[in-house]
Amino acid sequence: MARSDSGRYALTIYSLLFYAFLYAPIVLVVGYSFNSNPVNMMIWDGFTLGWYRSIFGISTQLSESALYVESTSQLYAAVRTSLTAALSASAISTIFGTCIALAVARYRFRCRGLYKALMYMPMMMPDIVLGISLLIFFVSVGINLSVYTIIIGHCTFLSSYVFIVVSARLADMDESLEEASADLGANGWETFRRVTLPLILPGVVGGGVLAFIISMDDLVITYFIAGVNSTTLPVFIYGMLRRGIKPEINAIATVMLLFSFLVASVGLFLRARRKF
Questions:
Q1: Domain-ending residue, one of 66, 90, 110
Q2: The predicted structure's pLDDT at residue 2
């Protein structure tokens, strides 16, 4: 009994240390975003919302005296570019990934295993290799770097994430339901619309939300394929970091964290709702 209690305590301590290791840096970023010290954010100098007012374009005496404020117009342009690229890339990737998952799961064709393995390659490939490859491709074919190259580049690896999520959903689906629909006289499109799609929709929604979050947060690949006037928010933050760790960065990171949490919560809510 004592041995069981000691093992339970050791597991509890290990779990607490593990989660502290994962989330302590995030807690520090959120906490320092409210620090009024404009010079050294590691030294607490009082609570303030000035850095949030700064990134939202509300001028404050704190931010004006700190000389750290970036152009809010450039920040908003980066946010618009990130949203445009993420929404477009996630929508296209969701369609492509779902179609490929359906084809691989429902049809038998030559080199099917190889084709399936190739869908995993963009996920296993180092981001810097994929970014350089895309850059060389766009330059070779004469495509100017812009928000469109970001969308194309993101689709190359986001489709793999959607493919895996939808494939997992298809693996748990009872194929006899589709066969019963066909026996009752429904054609292929009717079977897909009334049987297959409602059953795999939670996976499709989950894959789309995952693709959107990954696209919003991507830095390495986007850094190589973004044009001069198509800077995304992660690239914008990276540019700020190269000029020094500024207090606004903590505030921007906190807003991005909250936004990602809200998007993920909406996706989980929709998935849970579809089960009933």
A1: 66
A2: 52
